[in-house]
Write a structure and sequence with these properties.
The structure holds two protein chains of two kinds.
Chain A lengths: L6 H20 L10 H13 L2 H5 L13 E4 L2 E4 L16 H10 L14 H4 L4 H11 L24 H8 L13 H11 L5 H4 L17 E3 L2 E3 L15 H10 L9 H9 L6 H12 L16 H18 L17 H4 L4 H9 L1 E2 L11 E2 L8 H12 L11 H11 L5
Antiparallel strand pairs in A: 1-2, 3-4, 5-6
Chain B lengths: L12 E2 L3 E6 L3 H12 L4 E4 L7 H4 L8 H6 L12 E4 L7 E2 L15 H4 L14 H9 L17 H15 L7 E2 L2 E2 L23 H12 L5 E2 L9 E2 L5 E2 L21 H4 L1 H4 L5 E4 L3 E7 L6 E7 L5 E11 L3 H11 L16 E4 L2 E8 L18 E3 L18 E5 L20 H11 L3 E2 L5 E3 L8 E9 L5 E6 L4 H20 L4 E5 L16 E3 L23 E3 L14 H19 L10
Parallel strand pairs in B: 1-14, 2-3, 2-14, 3-11, 4-22, 14-25
Antiparallel strand pairs in B: 4-5, 6-7, 8-17, 9-10, 12-13, 13-14, 15-24, 16-19, 16-20, 16-23, 17-18, 18-20, 21-22
């Protein structure tokens, strides 16, 4: 009987050797030793913090960083390029300066402006040596020949020079500045959130041109048919009810006593946050907990309103088996809807979507169960979906705006066109 | 496609070799895949049916559909894909089963672990040495001359750690009756000693079950809650998988559970297994043959056919046959591994000691103005049981039979189509019938298989290949020859009467008592506890696999499941099936892999 051998180790070493050989020819003269283990491994970890794999790898295709994944934006899809060290179609022949310009300044190899789907407005917080370390790591992965046509946006967004205007409006270049009034942990968290982890890309609302509405920093936004929740310390709609450990557990395992990651965050947990160090997820949590909440408190919908009574009956019949009559759920299995900030969010897009389409929570090494929420879109009509969500959002001490059947109808129609 | 061509090198395309190929991804296949991937082996599981995922394939939003799942058998094998022929006696012409009745062959990932009720019974210590034990106590002449019961080749004590593992995998809810030799109040005092308590406390019992317990206690019995794989509370199993408390929805047997409350491969193993890079599964692919080399003593892999009708050969160093018991026997016969059993001579290994379960029930009709049982409140293995009449827990001398079973109020719900019961004497239709249904729905005790008796082995109850009927690959169908023998009929009459006394003592106004009698009826549901055909034992003349479930004929083939039972005890089989899978996995990991070859000298 042959025992399983770690052949992939040898294959990896071979790829490393080839990649290094390529790197020697093309890398710009040696400010960083791109063969140094500490540099390469540091770059590997930075690539996890930056979640490069999410956009630059087609899921399940087993060609890491080979690009080709369409990234959905409000302006159309942008296809992520190949960042393997392939000489022709990847970044094998780029200089470190060209790579650094792309990552931290949004300027392509030939001087063209990148689309901000590449979050260079966040990566600009990185230091140059961080970026060169990422480059050193990427040089070690298997080179894949995969030509990618990146420019797929319609007019007028296909005019890349227009991005120059966008950069003036929304792009503030500059490395992270240490705040000496705050702890080192807080600073690490702020750097991670605003820099490599680029949390604001999903969680900060965008202007009509796709720039950050900085006054609503991390207060929740819409993307890809989901609403990313408020991740400030707001008690009702944010992380105010979560402890630092709750946030750290969520990032590290995808689950905590309140909820589980699903939708785009499930992928972020899978590829990035679950692979961060315990210190780093704690630093992120510490920083997020320091962001003041907004403190808005709408009046609850009356418990005798017709939609509340209908919603309560639907909740009892359809939801309580898993989420419990008291809305408390089961620890790390079924989310507690009674104290879910996502359920209370001003923008109900995600919760409507979860009821209509169902959702799968993320599977991680520490929490492999990956429980799923079934779809109720075939069974509940738009009034019923609105009623049960209004009930959840206004029971057990919760108070959030009623969900209207029209909102459900709109989302149902738009979801019908989505494949994800 | 012509079956003869399936394994010709020209027809079947050959896939890259794996360390292990597992045939059937149900309970035992999943346990073995988990164990052998932990060992670092590269494992592929090939499953005849579809992939089944709990929240998408049987969500709570649609599962409570008795017509779809119970009446129309959604989760089960379609007989036009594969069926068996059936007869009672060797001189009869067997006919194909065209609609499942007496049992429900599972299909798809999770196998019977999806649709089961999750009763978690251990067999008695004496069950494993049955022949020796009964012969010593009653003498060989006490046993019917055609009874072919055997010892298992292992003991309860050897299996105990593996019972424990499967119980903890499943989060089993129960009350210990024998903790390391100490008899515990409230548990089953007849059970073998267990090394530790159940992982979770017993499920709370609904009214009729509680009343049964009270009546049984007053009659001098020691009732206890049926051990259950539907959990009383949230639980995290040793693989890190989380389960939730059962909600008593009343749709358990015949149905899947996506409340994560019922132990199944889906809830207890698969989410961990599918994360492993050294595990692969192919669904909708039916293994049609285990291939051997020219010596016939070494398996080289399997041949399977995918949904496009393409045949593939999957080579492997180790073959695990872990399909449902009947399909294990069938694949052994089709693969020509092991001499087929011949009832005329009593010789041969494959197909012998085929058994089922001897079940019956007593429905109790109570005064509806005084009793409201809310019978729709149910959980798959909810129940209060007594074990006084199981195995050899009582003196059989005066009764003239051997064997026994537990009896209990194990009502798992009152789904509308099957639960429109009326007392004896009610008109079959019209106003009288309607009134009786209305009056009795809430006040009827319907224990399902409330009498759960053993089924011992006989010389002329067996499996072989049918000489006439063929399957879709032109292979002979497997033929079942099975009947209810006098010993089992006597046993059942005795148990059913004892059971009826307790239902009566609960306060029933009238009883509907149904005994299990000959001939064996293939059309009405009994249980899906079909056993034997590839039985384990210490003697290669009378068993197909050794005590480690390793084929006597082909040492790199292990055959898991209830097909290994030499005869059936008076309990549901799954916990013993799971324990044997862990026992075999332990033998493979700690003995076979270091020194491949027969683990027991033939």
């Amino acid at each position: 009987m042959r025992r399983r051998k770690k052949l992939d180790v040898f294959a990896g070493a071979a790829a490393l050797f080839v990649a290094m050989a390529c790197g020697k020819v093309t890398a710009s003269a040696g400010e960083v030793n791109a063969q140094d283990f500490t540099t390469v491994d540091g770059g590997r970890y930075l690539s996890i913090l930056s979640d490069c794999a999410s956009c630059h790898t087609i899921p399940q295709k087993n060609q890491p960083f080979a690009g080709g994944r369409p990234i959905e934006t409000p302006f159309g899809n942008i296809v992520a390029p190949n960042i393997t060290p392939d000489m022709d179609t990847g970044i094998g022949s780029w200089t470190d300066d060209q790579f650094d310009n792309a990552v931290r300044k949004g300027i392509g190899r030939n001087g063209e402006r990148l689309y901000p789907a590449m979050p260079y407005n966040a990566y600009t917080k990185l230091a140059r040596e961080d970026v060169v370390a990422i480059r050193a790591y990427l040089n070690t992965v298997t080179a894949v020949y995969n030509p990618v046509v990146a420019s797929t946006l319609p007019f007028p967004f296909n005019i890349r020079t227009a991005m120059w205007v966008w950069d003036i409006l929304y792009f503030k270049q500059g490395e992270y500045a240490f705040d000496s009034h705050q702890s080192a942990e807080w600073n690490r968290g702020a750097f991670l959130v605003d820099g490599p982890a680029h949390c604001g890309a999903c969680h900060t609302p965008k202007t009509f041109l796709g720039g950050d509405k900085t006054s609503l920093y991390l207060q929740g936004a819409q993307l890809q048919g989901w609403s990313a929740p408020n991740i400030t310390n707001d008690l009702r709609t944010g992380l105010g009810g979560w402890s630092v450990d709750d946030i750290a557990a969520y990032l590290k395992t995808g689950h905590n006593r309140i909820t589980g990651a699903t939708g785009p965050m499930a992928e972020a947990v899978d590829l990035s946050t679950s692979k961060m160090t315990d210190d780093d997820v704690k630093a992120i949590a510490t920083y997020l907990k320091s962001l003041p909440g907004q403190g808005t408190a709408p009046a609850p919908v009356s418990s005798t309103a017709p939609e509340m009574r209908a919603g309560g009956a639907i909740y009892r019949d359809q939801c309580s088996a898993c989420h419990g009559l008291g809305g408390k759920g089961v620890d790390r299995l079924f989310p507690a809807v009674a104290n879910s900030s996502l359920a209370r969010a001003d923008d109900p897009t995600s919760v409507i979507r979860i009821v209509l389409r169902g959702a799968r929570s993320v599977s991680t090494a520490k929490e492999p169960t990956a429980a799923g929420m079934p779809s109720y879109g075939w069974q509940l009509n738009d009034f019923q979906v609105a009623a049960v969500l209004t009930y959840i959002r206004n029971s057990w001490g919760n108070a959030s705006p009623a969900v209207s059947p029209d909102e459900v109808t709109r989302l149902r129609n738009s979801l019908a066109k989505r494949t994800d | 496609m012509d079956f003869e061509q399936l394994w010709s090198p020209v027809m079947a395309r050959i896939l890259p070799k794996k360390d292990v190929v597992i045939i059937g991804l149900g309970w035992t296949g999943a346990v073995m895949a988990q164990e052998l991937t932990d060992e670092g082996l590269d494992v592929i599981a090939i499953e005849r049916g579809p992939w089944r995922d709990a929240p998408t394939d049987f969500p709570p939003s649609q599962m409570q559909d008795e017509l779809r799942y119970r009446v129309r058998h959604e989760l089960f094998l379609r007989p036009d894909q594969l069926t068996f022929t059936f007869r009672n006696k060797v001189d009869q012409q067997a006919l194909p089963i065209r609609n499942w009745g007496a049992f429900m062959p599972p299909n798809g990932v999770g196998g019977g672990g999806v649709h089961w009720n999750a009763e978690m019974w251990r067999f008695l210590p004496s069950d494993f040495v049955l022949k020796t034990h009964l012969t010593q106590r009653y003498g060989a002449d006490f046993l019917p001359s055609d009874m072919t019961i055997q010892d298992w080749g292992i003991t309860y004590d050897e299996l105990e750690p593996h019972y424990d593992r499967f119980e903890y995998l499943c989060g089993t809810s129960g009350t210990a009756g024998n903790l390391r030799g100490k008899i515990m109040e409230g548990g089953n005092p007849f059970e073998g000693p267990r090394s530790r308590d159940y992982p979770t406390k017993a499920q709370p019992q609904p009214f009729s079950h509680t009343l049964f317990g009270k009546a049984a206690r007053e009659l001098g019995y020691k009732p206890f809650p049926q051990p259950s794989g539907n959990l009383s509370t949230a639980y995290t199993n040793p693989l890190g998988l989380r389960m939730g408390p059962c909600t008593y929805c009343g749709f358990c047997e015949w149905f899947g559970c996506s409340n994560y409350s019922k132990a199944s491969p889906q809830t207890t193993i698969l989410p961990v297994l599918v994360r492993k890079s050294n595990f692969t599964a192919r669904d909708n692919s039916e293994v049609v043959k285990i291939n051997t080399d020219r010596s016939g003593k070494h398996a080289t892999g399997v041949t399977f056919v995918d949904s496009s009708g393409e045949a593939w050969e999957q080579p492997a160093d180790l073959v695990i046959l872990s399909a449902f018991s009947l399909f294990n026997a069938q694949l052994m016969l089709h693969s020509g591994i092991g001499q087929p059993y011949d009832p005329a001579t009593g010789e041969g290994r494959i197909g012998r000691n085929f058994t089922h379960q001897t079940t019956s029930s007593v429905n109790g009709f109570f005064d509806h103005t005084k009793f409201n049982f809310n019978p729709f409140i149910g959980s798959g293995s909810i129940g209060m049981c007594i074990d006084e009449f199981n195995g050899d827990n009582f003196d059989h001398g005066p009764h003239g039979f051997v064997g026994g079973g537990y009896v209990g109020q194990v009502q798992t719900g009152a789904r509308p189509i099957e639960s429109a019961l009326t007392p004896p004497g009610t008109p079959k239709w019209g106003t009288g019938w309607k009134n009786a249904v209305r009056d009795n729905y809430l006040s009827t005790v319907k224990p399902g298989t409330g009498v759960h008796g053993s089924f011992y082995a006989y010389r002329d109850i067996y499996l072989d290949l049918d000489p006439l009927y063929k399957d879709r690959f032109s292979r002979p169908l497997m033929r079942m020859t099975i009947d209810i023998k006098e010993n089992e009929a006597k046993q059942n009459r005795f148990l059913t009467d004892k059971f009826a006394e307790i239902i009566k003592a609960m306060g029933a106004a009238s009883l509907a008592k149904t005994y299990r009698t000959a001939p064996y009826d293939s059309t009405t549901y009994q249980t899906t506890h079909l056993n034997g055909g590839v039985i384990m034992g210490a003697d290669p003349k009378t068993s197909a696999v050794n005590r480690y479930l390793q084929s006597w004929d082909v040492s790199n083939l292990f055959v898991l499941g209830a097909s290994a039972f030499p005869q059936n005890a008076g309990y549901n089989p799954t916990l013993t099936v799971g324990a044997l899978a862990y026992w075999a996995a332990d033998a493979i990991r700690n003995q076979y892999l270091t020194k491949p070859g027969p683990l027991v000298d033939a």
